[in-house]
Amino acid sequence: MQGVRAGYGQVEVLKGIDLEVKSGEYVAIIGANGHGKTTILRTASGLLRPRSGRVVFDGADIAGMPSYKVAERGLIHIPEGARLFPQLTVYENLLAGAFSRASWSERTKNLERVFKIFPALADRKGQLALTLSGGERQAVAIARGMMAKNVKIILIDEASAGLAPILIDEVYRQVAEIRKTGIGVLVVEQSPKRISDADRIYLVENGEVRMSGTAKEVLESEEVMQAYLGA
Amino acid sequence: MVDSSLLLPPLLSGIVLGSLYALMAMGLTLIYSTIRVLNFAHGAFFMAGAYIVWWLNTPSSVLYGTLLPTSGLALPLAVAVIPAVLTIFVVGMGTQQAMIRPLVKKANPLITTLVATLALATILESIATLIFGGGRLQFASEIATGVIRYGGLVITYAELVQLVVAVIVLVALQLFLKRSRYGIGMRAVAQDLDAANLCGINTENVYMLAFGLGAALAAVAGFLLTNIVFISPDVGWTPLTIAFIVVVFGGIGSVSGTLLASYIIAIVQQYVTLFLDASWGLSFAFLLMIAVLMVRPRGLFGFKEV
Amino acid sequence: MLLAYPFVAEQGYTTYVLVIILGYSIIGLYYNLLLGYVGIPFLGVMVPFAVGGYSTGYLAQIGLSPLVALVVGATFAAGSGLLFSLPSMRLRGLYMALYSLVFALFFQNLISRSDIPALFQVFQGAIGQSDIPDISLGGFLWRTNQGLAYFYLGLGLLILSAFVLKQLLDSRFGIALRGVRDAEVYASTLGIGIFRVKVVAFTVSSLFIGVGGAFLTLFYGAIGLNILDTSNMLLFFSMVVIGGLGTFLGPIAGAFILVPLDLYFTKFGAWRLLIWGAAILLVVLVAPDGVVGRAGRIVRTLVARRTTG
Predict the structure, then answer these.
(1) Could you tell me which residues are beta bridge partners of residue A75?
(2) Is B32 on the interface with C (CB under 8 A)?
(3) pLDDT at A229 over 70
(4) Closest Cβ opposite residue B198 in set A71, A87, A103
C-alpha cells in the first residue's frame, strides 16, 4: 500500500498509509483500537475503496477491485469476528472458501491440507457454524481462507480477540503452520507479546504509520513500551 | 353432520396446491434472501412462463378464425416447457443485471426496486395483453386426463402430475442449494455478503443466478397451475399475493418454514373453500398470517436479519 | 401566482388536470412521510385513499353535506391507518412491506364482495359508487367550470397539509421519525417510543391520504374498484420515488410530472400501460434519487464547488 487514504462517509480514517508485505513474510500491525488497523485490511481486500493512494498486489493494482476478485488472486482476508456463515455447517463453510472454479476442482485436496493444519475441525464437519465456540470459529475462519487454491498472503484481523490464552496459543500455532507453507501473513494484533516473532511490525496510530521496523526495534521502542506497559 | 369423506379431498388438493405454492414462494424467498429485494414482477414471470408454453403448444388449427397468435409449432407440453422456463430464467437474470443491480447500490434499494419491479410487471402484463388479448385462454392440451379413484377419493391425473413435477423441482432445488458450488455460494451470500465476497464467491453471478432461478420457479408454477385452469394477463397477481403470504408466514430465509407454510396455507384455503366459499380462502390466509405475525414477527421460522 | 392563475391562463382542461395534481400531491406528501422520512415500505396506500373516498361518497349520497362528509371520510381513513398500524408493532422491513400489501389486498377483497349487505351498501361491490352529490356551498355547484372551485379547495387543502407536515417534521416527533428510519435497531432499544411514533405516523398519513381520496372522489363524483388497481399503486409509488424520497417537495414535483403524463398516455389506448411502465422504469433507473433529490444534489455540488474554488 502506498499513500492510502480511506474512510467511511465523512470520516477519513486512513491518512496516508505506506505498508508492505513481501511474499513469505510475517508482518504484524499493532496499535490501539479505532485507529484504523481494520480499515487497512478492508482496503487491502477490496471491501473498502481507497480515496487516494495505490494498493498493489503481486504486481497488479487492486484498489477498488471487487473483493471476490482480490480473493481469487490469492489475497485472503480473514475478517474480524470470524464472520462464518451461521446456518452452514463447518464443512459447508470450508467449501464456501473454495468457490473459485480453480479452487473448487481441487477442493478435496484443499480439505485434506486444511484438516492437517486444523485437525480438530475434521470431527466437527457436520456441525452448524453457529453452534461453535469462539476458538473453534476462529479456526474455521482461517481454515476457510486456506481453502482457496493459491493463497499467497493471508490477512488476519484480531486473531486473538475475545479468546482465552490457550486458544490464542492454538491460533498462533496455526499461523506458524501456515507460514511453513510459504504463505505470507499479515496479522492485526492487540497484544505485542504474541507477535514477537514477526519479521516486521507496523505501529498504526490515528490512521498513520507511526513506526515500522523489525519486531525487536518496534517492541523495544519507547513508544510501544509506554503505550502498552503504561507510563 | 359433515360427512367424513368430504374432509379428505381438501387435504389432498391442499397438498397438490401447496406444492405449487411452494414453488412460487421458494422463488420469491430465494430472491429476497440473496439480494434483499422484493420481486414484484414474480407474478408476471408466472404469467409470462405460462403464455410462452401456450404459444409454443397451441396448434394453429385450434385458433382458426381468432386473432390469437401462436407459434404454430404445436410442441407437446413436456417439450414446450423447457424453452419457456429457460426464457424466463434468462429474463430474470437480465432483470437483475439491468434493473436491480444499479438500484441496489444506491439509496433506498428496497423501495426503488419495488417500483422498478412493479413497473416491469406492468410492462409484462401489457405486452401480454397486446399480444394475446385481455381475455382468458385455455390450453389446447392438458398435462393429463382422467382420474384415479381409490375408495371414495378422486384425484385427477393432472393433479398428480402437478404434484410430482413440483416435488421433483423442489427436491432438485434443495440438492442444488446443498451440494453445488453456486448453491452453497448462494446460501453464503444470503447469510453474510461481505464474508462471501472475501471467500472469493462471485457475488455478481450469484445475484444473477438467484434472480434467474426465482423467476424460473415462478414460470414452472405458472405453467402447471394455468394449464388446468386458464391464462389471462392478470393471472399472476393472486399467486403473487399467496407467495407473499406464504413467505411472511413461514419466515424469510428458512426453507423448511417456506415449505411448511405453503402446505398449511393451501390446506387451510381448501378447507375454507369447503365450508364457506373460495373467495374467503384468501382472506383467511391473510388473517392467519396476521395472527402468526403478532406472535412471531419474523414468521414461523424466520431468521434474524442482521 | 397560482391564485391568480385562473384569471390569466385559459381554463378548461388545465383546471381539471391541476385539480387532480393537487389531490395527488396531498397524498404524495404523506405517502412520502411513510416511505421517505420514516422509511417504511408501506404498500397499502390505496386503503386510506379508498376508505376516505368511499365513506365520503356514501355519506354524501345519504344526505350529509359533502364538505362535512369529506372531513368525516378522512377521519375514517385515519381510523383505518390506526387499525393497520396496531398489529405492526414488531414488524420491520420486508415483513412490514408484505403485511401492508396483503392488508391492502384483503381490503380489496372485502369491499368487492357482494355477499355482505353492510359492506355492499357502502362500497357497492364491483359497481362502485356513482352520482355522488357535488359541493354546493355558496349556492352553486362546485364542479362547474371544470371544477374551478375545487381548484381553490385543493390548493387550500394542499397548503394546509403541507403546513401540518412541516410542523410535524420540525418537531421532536419529526426527529423521532427519522430515528426510526436511520437507526431502527438502535432506536428500538428505546422501546415503546418507536411503536407510538409509527402509530402516529400511520394515522396522520392515513388522515391526509384520506383527505386526498375524499377530495378527488367529490371532484369526480364517482369512485370504483379500479382505484385499487396495481397501476394506481404504481402511480402513487412512482410519484413519491420519482419526485424524491424523503424530500419535502418531491411528491408535488412527482405529481406535476406524472399526473399529466398519465392522462396524456390514455391516448395510446392499449399501449398505454406498456409505455407508462417503461417510462417509470426508465426514470427510476436514471434518477433513483428522484427529480428533487437529483436537483438537490446538483445544487449541493455547485455550492460545494463555489466554496472550495
Answers:
(1) A153
(2) yes
(3) no
(4) A71
